[in-house]
Every structure is written in structure tokens, then in C-alpha cells.
Amino acid sequence: MARVALMPARQYLEECFTSPEMRSLMAFFAMQTKTSLDQPGSAFGMVELPWSHAGGVTRARGGMSAVCDAIVRALEESGGTVLRDSHVGEVIIRGGCAVGVRTADGQEIGARRAVISAVSPVRTFTRLIDPDQLDPAFLRRVRSIQIDNTGVIKCFYALDEAPVFSESGDDGSNRGFRTAAGMLCPSVDHADTMWRYIRDRRLPTKIGWSWCTHTSTLDPSLAPAGKHTLGLHVWVPVELADGGTWDARAKETMAMRLLDEYTRCAPNVKDALIAWTARSPTDYEELMDNPNGNMNHVDYTPHQAFGFRPLPELSDYRTPIEGLYLSGAGMHPGPAVTGLPGHNTAQVVLSDLE
Ligand SMILES: Cc1cc2nc3c(=O)[nH]c(=O)nc-3n(C[C@H](O)[C@H](O)[C@H](O)COP(=O)(O)OP(=O)(O)OC[C@H]3O[C@@H](n4cnc5c(N)ncnc54)[C@H](O)[C@@H]3O)c2cc1C
């Protein structure tokens, strides 16, 4: 296991698989950690992703916002208050202790017991805390946490009919194909081309992989009667070469490249397209305030996983500021909608309050 975790994915693929289909599927898993197939440690994702999905995958009826709504309801039922559309501008620190937050519009909210930051640890220490409160050597280590130039573009398509995977013998009635999620893994060659373009900060001409979501297939409430949704996402460079920006044209280029690759499996989708929209890494940064729009808050690599996430000295969810704790995707066990970083932080806070 340790050997696999340290290996470049390509070596593992060549050692263990002969069929091109299996190699591209396993490459798909490896690339989920935002690593090319030659990076040492890139085989990590091949183990991590199937393992973390082994217990099955569930989806909230009504879409992912239903999960947030349920959490808010639970909190409010326990007497809590949730301020939506309110941005924290600063963690208030007095006498070395976190005693509250100040919102961007100047409102001060005191904390009787603890302040928990579930935004990127890098943003927490570099934007929300007065640098005079932090040891310069610690701050330097935080600033050097890896958040590379690879981001995500997610494209959303409205369809007149559900995808039919006729290239694989589907006629639209085979229940085996009517899943909410699919994995597009064209080939190892496609993956290599994609990474070359990402390294050169250009829009990939080949789609190395894509998660495909057909959520309306299982949850018709997500689309008008008879219509369907399709989501496709893939890695892209955050900053583009030659002063390029993630403007409407760049988004359209990637949205159509993704759709072209997808329609090689489900050709009916091209004529069924009603409308599309896309979120680029820049859109995600604006929307979520994660550095580089990074959905993982900090890169998820072997040197930033488990007890090293995001740094060894922060991995127990405590910080050098008394009363300030960390949570969210930047903490162990990392990204994805698991609730586990929150659970772990809660255990630490509760034990400190005892
Ligand atoms: C395209 C895409 C597809 C994905 N697919 C999957 C999937 O299939 N399965 C899966 O499990 N995961 C998936 N993920 C990953 C998953 O969405 C994230 O890992 C998860 O949302 C992390 O949750 P979080 O609460 O830690 O952080 P986030 O979801 O990043 O939430 C952080 C929140 O903090 C807010 N915030 C930031 N700064 C401040 C501030 N200063 N003050 C107040 N609020 C602030 C942000 O607006 C945001 O709402 C996907 C992500 C993306 C982008």
C-alpha cells in the first residue's frame, strides 16, 4: 500500500494492467487528485477514490443545496442562527485568543467558546488574521502550502431528452445505463495531452477525463417534465498563457470540447441540447472565495494528506491561536461531501471545552 501511494500512476498502470480500457479507467482515478500520471504519488488517487466510494454514493433529492438546507434546519432547531450572504472579513483576536469575527460589512459577532474556520486554511491565515498575531516562520509555511495552477471547469447542459449510450448498445431502456453519475475516460493518450496543455496554461484540446452527472435521470424534480440535466467537469489551467482570461469564449470552447467527447458515447445529446452554462476556475474563486477556485481548499497530494493536511502542525484541527479551529476540505480527511472534517473538528472542540 505504501509503495503504491508513493508511485507515479503510469508505473502502476503499466505494472498491473494490459487493456487500454482498464488503463484509462485507472488513470481517471489517479487524476482526481489533480496530478499528472508521471508525478510521484499520483497512484494515490487510484487507491483513495475507489476506497472512499466503496460504501456507495448517495444524492440528495432536489440537488446538493438540499444538504445545506438540512444542515441549516438542524442548526436552527438547536437554537443556532445562520447568516447567509455574510462574509467574514476578520477573526477578532484579543490576548492571543480568538474571541469572534468581524463581517465584511463591519458587524462584530462574539464567540463565547470557539471560532471555527471552514474556509481554506491558507485564506484563514493570510486574509482573516492580522499577520502580527502569527509567527512569521509559521506564516511562511502556510503561504507555501501547495495550491497549484490546476482548477476545474464545470459545464451544465439542459437537454430535451436523456442521454442514450447507443455506442455501447444502449437503446434508452437499459437500467444499467440510467445512473446519476458516469465517468468519461477516453484514453491515457488523451490524459497526457490534457496535462501538456494544462502545464502550458492553454485550454486542453483533448479531454483527459470527465465526471458526468445525469442527476435528473434519478431525480426528475431537477428538470421540467420530460427534460434532462447533464453536468460535465474536467481539470483546466487557472491562469491562462499570453494574458488569456476565462471569458465567455474560453468557457464556450471547453463546454463544446467536453460535449463533443461526451457525444462520442451518447450521440443523441448534441441534437437534444437546449442551453448550457459553465463555471470556470475564476467563477469558482469569485463564488466560493477558495484560492484559485480550488475545490479542495489546498491540493490533495500525499504530502498534504492524512496527518500532513494541510501542514503537520495544523493537522489536529487546532491552530496557534487559542480558541481558533480549522475545518472543511483543507483538513483531514480532505475534500468531498462527507461531513468528516466537520465531525473531527467538533470532537476536538468538544474535548477542549470539557
Ligand atoms: C465541479 C465540482 C464537482 C464536485 N463533485 C463532487 C462529487 O461528485 N462528490 C463529492 O463528494 N464532492 C464533489 N466535489 C467537491 C465538494 O464540493 C467539496 O469537497 C466540498 O464542497 C467541500 O466542502 P467545504 O464545506 O469544506 O468547502 P466549500 O464547499 O468550499 O465551502 C466553503 C464555504 O465557505 C464560504 N466562504 C469562503 N470564505 C468565506 C468567508 N470569508 N466568510 C464566510 N464564508 C466564506 C464559501 O462561500 C463556501 O460556501 C465537487 C466540487 C466541484 C467544484
SSE topology sketch:
Elements: H1 2-6, H2 9-16, H3 20-31, H4 44-53, H5 65-77, E1 88-94, E2 97-103, E3 108-110, E4 115-117, H6 121-127, H7 136-143, E5 150-159, E6 181-184, H8 188-199, E7 210-213, H9 215-218, E8 228-237, H10 248-263, H11 268-272, E9 273-279, H12 281-288, E10 324-326, H13 340-353
Parallel strand pairs: 4-10
Antiparallel strand pairs: 1-2, 2-3, 5-8, 5-9, 6-7, 7-8
Helix pairs in contact: 2-3, 3-4
Bound molecules: flavin-adenine dinucleotide.
Task: Characterise the protein shown here.
The protein has helices spanning 2-6, 9-16, 20-31, 44-53, 65-77, 121-127, 136-143, 188-199, 215-218, 248-263, 268-272, 281-288, 340-353; strands spanning 88-94, 97-103, 108-110, 115-117, 150-159, 181-184, 210-213, 228-237, 273-279, 324-326. It is built from 13 helices and ten strands. The strands form three sheets. The chain has a five-stranded antiparallel beta sheet. Helix 2 (9-16) packs antiparallel against helix 3 (20-31) and helix 3 packs across helix 4. Helix content is 34%, strand content 16%. The longest helix is centred in the C-terminal third of the chain and has 16 residues, at 248-263. The model has no long low-confidence stretch (mean pLDDT 95). The site of flavin-adenine dinucleotide has 16 residues, from strand 5.
